[in-house]
Protein backbone atom coordinates (compact mmCIF):
# COMPACT_ATOMS: atom_id res chain seq x y z
CA UNK A 1 0.00 0.00 0.00
CA UNK A 2 1.02 3.57 -0.68
CA UNK A 3 -0.11 6.43 1.54
CA UNK A 4 0.57 9.93 0.26
CA UNK A 5 0.52 13.05 2.40
CA UNK A 6 1.64 16.67 2.39
CA UNK A 7 -0.62 18.30 -0.16
CA UNK A 8 -2.33 21.59 0.48
CA UNK A 9 -2.70 25.17 -0.67
CA UNK A 10 0.17 27.57 -1.15
CA UNK A 11 0.82 30.85 -2.89
CA UNK A 12 2.93 31.04 -6.01
CA UNK A 13 6.62 30.99 -5.13
CA UNK A 14 6.02 28.87 -2.06
CA UNK A 15 7.09 25.33 -1.21
CA UNK A 16 5.48 22.05 -0.27
CA UNK A 17 6.85 18.64 0.55
CA UNK A 18 4.94 15.50 -0.36
CA UNK A 19 5.66 12.16 1.24
CA UNK A 20 4.60 8.65 0.31
CA UNK A 21 4.81 5.83 2.85
CA UNK A 22 5.13 2.37 1.30
CA UNK A 23 4.19 -0.97 2.79
CA UNK A 24 3.82 -4.47 1.46
CA UNK A 25 6.65 -4.28 -1.10
CA UNK A 26 10.34 -5.03 -1.10
CA UNK A 27 10.72 -1.28 -1.40
CA UNK A 28 14.43 -1.04 -2.01
CA UNK A 29 14.15 -3.08 -5.22
CA UNK A 30 11.70 -0.76 -6.96
CA UNK A 31 11.90 2.47 -8.84
CA UNK A 32 9.52 5.08 -7.44
CA UNK A 33 7.83 8.02 -9.00
CA UNK A 34 5.59 11.00 -8.53
CA UNK A 35 3.02 11.83 -11.16
CA UNK A 36 0.37 14.52 -11.32
CA UNK A 37 -2.95 15.15 -12.98
CA UNK A 38 -3.85 18.82 -13.50
CA UNK A 39 -7.54 19.72 -13.74
CA UNK A 40 -8.96 18.55 -17.06
CA UNK A 41 -5.68 17.02 -18.20
CA UNK A 42 -4.04 13.62 -18.33
CA UNK A 43 -1.73 12.24 -15.70
CA UNK A 44 1.90 13.15 -16.34
CA UNK A 45 5.31 12.29 -14.96
CA UNK A 46 6.81 14.64 -12.39
CA UNK A 47 9.91 12.74 -11.29
CA UNK A 48 11.24 9.23 -10.82
CA UNK A 49 14.00 7.74 -8.72
CA UNK A 50 15.54 4.37 -9.48
CA UNK A 51 16.42 1.73 -6.92
CA UNK A 52 20.04 2.91 -7.14
CA UNK A 53 19.04 6.53 -6.50
CA UNK A 54 19.34 7.84 -10.05
CA UNK A 55 16.72 10.50 -10.67
CA UNK A 56 15.00 11.96 -13.67
CA UNK A 57 12.56 14.85 -13.91
CA UNK A 58 10.06 16.24 -16.33
CA UNK A 59 11.52 19.32 -17.95
CA UNK A 60 9.07 21.73 -16.33
CA UNK A 61 10.10 20.57 -12.85
CA UNK A 62 13.85 20.44 -13.29
CA UNK A 63 15.58 22.71 -10.83
CA UNK A 64 12.44 23.30 -8.77
CA UNK A 65 11.46 19.81 -7.58
CA UNK A 66 13.60 17.18 -5.84
CA UNK A 67 12.65 13.54 -5.43
CA UNK A 68 14.29 11.44 -2.74
CA UNK A 69 13.86 8.06 -1.14
CA UNK A 70 14.61 6.54 2.25
CA UNK A 71 14.90 2.77 2.03
CA UNK A 72 14.93 2.41 5.82
CA UNK A 73 11.80 4.50 6.44
CA UNK A 74 10.28 3.17 3.17
CA UNK A 75 9.29 6.59 1.97
CA UNK A 76 9.62 8.54 -1.24
CA UNK A 77 9.38 12.31 -0.94
CA UNK A 78 8.94 15.17 -3.37
CA UNK A 79 10.22 18.60 -2.36
CA UNK A 80 8.56 21.26 -4.47
CA UNK A 81 9.96 24.79 -4.51
CA UNK A 82 9.13 27.91 -6.50
CA UNK A 83 5.64 26.61 -7.08
CA UNK A 84 3.60 28.04 -9.92
CA UNK A 85 -0.14 28.14 -10.55
CA UNK A 86 0.35 25.55 -13.29
CA UNK A 87 1.65 23.09 -10.69
CA UNK A 88 -1.90 22.81 -9.35
CA UNK A 89 -2.84 19.14 -9.65
CA UNK A 90 -3.54 15.93 -7.81
CA UNK A 91 -0.18 14.31 -7.14
CA UNK A 92 0.21 10.52 -7.08
CA UNK A 93 3.06 8.35 -5.91
CA UNK A 94 3.88 5.16 -7.77
CA UNK A 95 5.95 2.15 -6.82
CA UNK A 96 5.96 -0.84 -9.14
CA UNK A 97 2.36 -1.47 -10.16
CA UNK A 98 0.90 0.33 -7.15
CA UNK A 99 -0.44 3.87 -6.89
CA UNK A 100 -1.17 6.06 -3.93
CA UNK A 101 -4.53 7.69 -3.43
CA UNK A 102 -3.47 11.13 -4.64
CA UNK A 103 -2.95 14.34 -2.75
CA UNK A 104 -4.18 17.72 -3.97
CA UNK A 105 -1.77 20.62 -4.41
CA UNK A 106 -3.30 24.01 -5.12
CA UNK A 107 -1.08 26.95 -6.00
CA UNK A 108 -2.69 30.37 -6.11
CA UNK A 109 -1.21 33.21 -8.12
In total, the number of strands is: 11
Q: In terms of structural class, how would the helical and strand content be classed?
A: mainly beta
* Spans of at least 5 consecutive residues with low confidence: none
Rounded Rg = 13 Å
The residue fraction in helices comes out at under 10%
**What series of H and E elements makes up the topology?**
EEEEEEEEEEE
Strand content: over 45%
Summarize model confidence as the mean pLDDT: 96
Query: Major β-sheet, in short?
Result: 7 strands, mixed
Span of the ends, CA to CA: 34 Å
Q: What is the approximate shape?
A: globular
Number of helices: 0
Outline the fold blueprint.
Blueprint: E1 2-5, E2 8-11, E3 16-22, E4 32-37, E5 44-49, E6 55-57, E7 65-70, E8 75-80, E9 89-95, E10 98-99, E11 103-108
Parallel strand pairs: 2-11
Antiparallel strand pairs: 1-3, 3-8, 4-5, 4-9, 5-6, 7-8, 9-10, 9-11
Describe this structure in a few short sentences.
This protein is mostly beta strands and 109 residues long. It is 0% helix and 52% strand. It has strands spanning 2-5, 8-11, 16-22, 32-37, 44-49, 55-57, 65-70, 75-80, 89-95, 98-99, 103-108.
Amino acid sequence: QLQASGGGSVQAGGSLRLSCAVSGLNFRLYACGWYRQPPGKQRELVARIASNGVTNYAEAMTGRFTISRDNVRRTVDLQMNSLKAEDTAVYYCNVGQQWGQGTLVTVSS
